[in-house]
Design a protein that fits this description.
Strand order of the largest sheet: 1-6-5-2-4
Structural class: alpha/beta
CATH superfamily: Rhodanese-like domain
CATH class: Alpha Beta
Radius of gyration: 13 Å
Distance between the termini: 32 Å
Shape: globular
Number of helices: 6
Order of helices and strands: HEHEHEEHEHEHE
Oligomer: single chain
Number of strands: 7
Largest sheet: 5 strands, parallel
Strand content: 15-25%
CATH topology: Oxidized Rhodanese, domain 1
Length: 118
């Protein structure tokens, strides 16, 4: 059985863990933000169902202020493969965000529900 609190305490999670967290959030058993840091064209093509915000890496430093109110909340960051999201995770740590979490393998390894043109 998956424990939301334990998963959200990790630095990095996998596809299965994110899928379970999204289900738990629907049931009110988990609270977190899911941020996509890919570019808008990638997001339109294919995205994880349940993404809360698109903040492309190219705009991240301009738009990071949008997340200021969420500093204490777990924030799961995803991109295509996990590289850009790891960069954003590192920056969020520098900016004193308490719980930035990287999705290992990004949307490429994600096996849950997606939507978009692709």
């Amino acid at each position: 059985m998956y424990d939301a609190k334990k998963i959200l305490a990790k630095q990095e999670i996998n596809s299965d863990e994110l899928e379970h967290l999204l289900c738990m959030r629907e049931d009110g058993a988990a609270d977190f933000l899911l941020i996509d840091v890919r570019e808008q064209n990638e997001y339109i093509e294919k995205r994880i169902v349940g993404v809360d915000r698109l903040i492309p890496l190219s705009d991240f430093f301009v738009k990071v202020a949008e997340l200021e109110k969420e500093k204490c909340k777990p924030i799961i960051i995803q991109c295509k493969s996990g590289v850009r999201s790891a960069q954003v995770q590192a920056q969020l740590k520098v900016l004193a965000f308490e719980a930035p979490i990287n999705l290992a393998g990004g949307i490429t390894k994600y096996k849950g529900k997606t939507e978009g043109k692709g």
